[in-house]
Amino acid sequence: MTRENPVSKRADALDALRGIAVLAMVFSGIIPFGGALPSWMYHAQVPPPEHIFNPDVPGLTWVDWVFPIFLFSMGAAIPLAQSRRHEKGWEWWRIVPSILWRGVSLLAFAVFLQHLRPNILDPALGDLRWWLALSGFLILGLAFGRFPKWVPEIVQKGINVAGWLMGILLLSQLQYPDGTGFSPTRNDIILVVLANVAVVGALVWWLTRRSVAWRLGVMAWVLALLFSYSEPGWVKQVFSMSPLPSLLNFAYWKYLLVVLPGTIVGDGVLRWMKSSQPVPPAEDVVETLQVKPREEGATEWRGWEYGAIALLGITISLILLVGLQARWVWQTTVVTAILGTVLLRLVRSPVDATERLLATCGRWGVYWILLGLALEPYEGGIKKDPATLSYLFVTVGMSALLLAALFVVSDVFCQTWAFGLFVATGRNPLVGYVGYANLLLPILMLTGWRETIEDFTMSPRRGVVRAAVYTLIVALLASGMTRLRWFWKS
Predict the structure, then answer these.
(1) How would DSSP label each residue in 285-335?
(2) How far apart are CA 312 and CA 303, in angstroms?
(3) Are 432 and 19 within 8 A, CB to CB?
(4) What span, in angstroms and rounded, lies between the C-alpha atoms of 182 and 216?
């Protein structure tokens, strides 16, 4: 017996990947700082114990990988979202404004959120600071909320408009420690980068949706413009012109080198979702763990091969994190090349939709990683900030391999329960991103629980456990809102 892949099937593995990125951001931001934890628990360029940013320090930690995972998952989701509009009969004159509006909406979210971050608000406000942070969570949920289908459309629109009006009124009244009020320069840089590349990435995908070669050509143009942008000349003059440099900045386009490869994998996910070819259920895979000989020519992969693909994807990523952080560069390159060759051998001759998707993830993942390793000596070694080409290509390849591993677990072995909280968070990522600073932390402060908890978790190891528990609470919050069908959409 086999099961069919319905056209409406969700890519749980892609949701899980996005959820992993969001929750890893939360966790990395609240772990204890100091000299007791190892350097790989922080950004490579902000090492303990001082945690002073040093742009000359090369290396790669799991914390450095988190942002590219989110960029990659966003890129992979672009074909899914845009194809739905195309299937509904949307013409370009409707699609392009919708893409631009999404960028504007995400920029507005970034600006409003930063204005109501507790660490940005004036400490002199006392407890009012925490109430304002809580109100920010509510207002964002109203302004950007998408509610269950039983809520009439006109009511949803009314709630959104009310949220926007409440936000505008609140921001017009606030003053900050530097004596200023509202300013677009006060924004969440991560969301600003996402807004910039989301718009350009979606437009590029739409124009090149029928040709991966053209998309790779666009990446070459992006590279050329980035090289020229660093030197005096017409490129710098033209692309430095911006009505709002803090929000619209060509320098952010370098992250298209993560997003556009993500769209290539996203094309594979889209083909997989639309395919009606049978996918082996868990019991069939278990049977093939025995000795199922290949017939002459291409045949279905065996269960142990699926497991090996997932294991190799995770192993290669771990080797890169350890080796590049320890600066065993050539050794890491050799081992990665060998394991990558084995992985490429495993994903040969795909037959069904799932195998073709895993082959897409595996082949492109290995390609981008090896390209990034070839560029590792350039720009002083792999670095997150400013992002080197090696960093961008290595991390996008690692993200593709991690996605392949998640697909094996969820859609081959049918074990989605293993990362259910990640899936739920990935479906409501903005809630997860905002949940700690603007909901959980204010509640802990207003109730006095934070001081009590921190007194009990003073040691670094207990501090890590505390951060893990807080992250779990945020995941449960995002999961609960997902179950209630209260989605935050930009």
Answers:
(1) HHHHTTT-PPPSS--PPPHHHHHHHHHHHHHHHHHHHHHHHHT-HHHHHHH
(2) 14
(3) yes
(4) 40
φ and ψ of 238, to 5 deg: -70, -50
* Residues in the chain, total: 490
Tokens 């988190």, located at residue: 66
Residues 211, 235: Cα–Cα separation, whole Å? 27
Q: How many helices (H) and strands (E) does the chain have?
A: 19, 4
In a 13 Å sphere around the CA of 84, the CA atoms on its Cβ side amount to 9
Decide: 10 and 18 in contact? Cβ < 8 Å: no
- Strands (E) in 323-394, as ranges, are none
Contacts of 475 (CB under 8 A, 6+ apart): 19, 23, 421, 422, 424, 425, 432
pLDDT at residue 278 above 80? no
What are the tens digits of pLDDT across the range 370-407?
Answer: 999 999 999 999 999 999 999 999 999 999 999 999 99
Residue 97 burial by CB count (10 A; 0-12/13-18/19+): exposed, middle or buried? exposed
Long-range contacts of 325-331 (CB under 8 A, 24+ apart): 325/39, 325/40, 325/44, 325/59, 325/60, 325/61, 327/58, 327/59, 327/381, 329/373, 329/376, 329/377, 329/381
- The tokens for 184 are 């677009």
Burial (CB < 10 A; 0-12, 13-18, 19+), residue 8, is exposed
Distance CA 136, CA 117 (A): 8
Which DSSP state fits 34? S
Residue type for 255, please? Y
Residue with tokens 């990446």: 219
DSSP 8-state class, residue 179: S
Q: Nearest-CA neighbor of 400 among 367, 362, 370, 451?
A: 362
Residue for token pair 């700082």: 33
> 162: which residues sit within 8 A by CB, 6+ positions away?
142
Q: Which two tokens stand for residue 356?
A: 């073709």
Structure tokens at 346: 């495993």
Q: What is the pTM of this model?
A: 0.92
**267, 359 in Cβ contact below 8 A?**
no
Task: Provide the token pair at 10.
Answer: 């969700």
Q: How far apart, in whole angstroms, are the C-alpha atoms of residue 256 and residue 239?
A: 16
pLDDT of residue 9: 66
Which residue has 């902000």 as its token pair?
Answer: 46
**Nearest-angstrom CA–CA distance, 437 and 422:** 19
pLDDT at 222 over 80: yes
